[in-house]
Amino acid sequence: MNYYNYFTEVEEHFVRRRGKHMFVSPMDWSLIAAWRESGVPLHVALRGIDIAMDTWHSRPKRDSDRLSTLFYCHDAVMAEHARHLEAHLGENKDPGPPEQPDSAGEPGGHEVDKNVLLGFLNARISEIEAIQAKHYIGTDSSGIERVLSRMAEILKTAQEEAKPVLEELDRDLEIIETVLVAELKTRVPAEELEAWELEAKRELKIYKKRLDKQMYQKIQDNFIRGKIHGRFGLGELSLFNI
Question: What distance in Å separates the CA atoms of residue 189 and residue 167, rounded to the nearest whole number?
């Protein structure tokens, strides 16, 4: 699986199979994030999309019959994931040594120019500093200061290493983002947060019966996370955006 292209490859594959270019919605991106968080491999997600789209294209449709959301593919993706897990049950009892990075520095060969990586980290640090200056005047800023301190450590490590281990770095950034989003959520007025939650529930209403409780909560949490990023002008910390 190309770890860093997971989101874009799923989106592009769905758009291509749908046959009409249309960017997926923020809620669709929240669904993709939930698949990734649930451990659905990229090739399994793409196969599930193919199965769902083959079914859709094979049935009679009126001209007005449009496929507008990735949620149509969710059941097929989850069914393929279940089959994948069943087929590989017991294979990892003795996994042996971990996969070694290739010449690009990562399993899968994803290579990022070091200057681009450092620019990405500096940009996120500048955004977080701007958030602190704007939203933490005269209030306790210990939470965001801890985030900035950890980001500074990561930047220093990336500067010192000839070839930073990108997957490890991305895992560290995911942890930081979880902490940061939880911190920023406390700065969102209650009525605004409630409006976001109602929007998420409204958009997910017709799919709720098809989603298990854990998946439903992941999608809703990812949607709120995206809203928080937008409100505070914070770019995604994940390296797949580079």
Answer: 35
